[in-house]
Write a structure and sequence with these properties.
The complex is a heterodimer of chains A (115) and B (116).
Chain A: E1 3-5, E2 10-14, E3 19-21, E4 24-26, E5 32-38, E6 44-50, E7 56-58, E8 64-68, E9 73-78, E10 87-97, E11 100-105, E12 109-114
Parallel strand pairs in A: 2-12
Antiparallel strand pairs in A: 1-4, 3-9, 5-6, 5-10, 7-8, 8-9, 10-11, 10-12
Chain B: E1 4-7, E2 10-13, E3 19-25, E4 31-38, E5 42-51, E6 54-57, E7 64-66, E8 76-78, E9 87-94, E10 106-107, E11 111-115
Parallel strand pairs in B: 2-11
Antiparallel strand pairs in B: 1-3, 3-8, 4-5, 4-9, 5-6, 7-8, 9-10, 9-11
The chains are: A mainly beta (115), B mainly beta (116).
Chain lengths: 115, 116
Amino acid sequence: AQSVTQLDSQVPVFEEAPVELRCNYSSSVSVYLFWYVQYPNQGLQLLLKYLSGSTLVKGINGFEAEFNKSQTSFHLRKPSVHISDTAEYFCAVSGPLRGGNKLTFGTGTQLKVEL
Amino acid sequence: DGGITQSPKYLFRKEGQNVTLSCEQNLNHDAMYWYRQDPGQGLRLIYYSQIVNDFQKGDIAEGYSVSREKKESFPLTVTSAQKNPTAFYLCASSIERLAGHTGELFFGEGSRLTVL
């Protein structure tokens, strides 16, 4: 079975500063990795995904993430955040479930961007 | 616009009452899912359905029931057997069935259930 650990429950950052949200995973098989974003009282939307190929993945809203197999990490980064980036961010891994794959989510990191 | 519609957005119920949450999608997706979200616990899978008239239990199915009579609809019933039903419930769909599923889900805006 796979699992996901998001090391920080909250990350405060000032506007225009860089940010990194950490994610580590464990799995005995090859996995697909994802970051989703959730704005208050809304559903989740996909930010970016790693399926194969280049380990640096670019997503929407200027976010990017790097897949590091040796460290089993998939950290999310943005070089300069905006107030509108305030949201909760979920790392997820897709791995085997009976009949197919299952998406397992981390517990989330609340990003709060301050002026 | 295509998407997933959940209703109601907010729902209050007395303890011991069954509640049904609606989820409708017009994306023509085969697979649909129900997740429960609690603060600090992320999302946990309740039930999923890969095809009409078929559904499977997820990690926390006890106290919940679903049906999938139409491709577009996947309602969730929170029964009186669910010991702690107050939560935010999210419905999702994916274009792929679970076989070969790459994890890209499309979510509704959620239903917040509060049991008094």
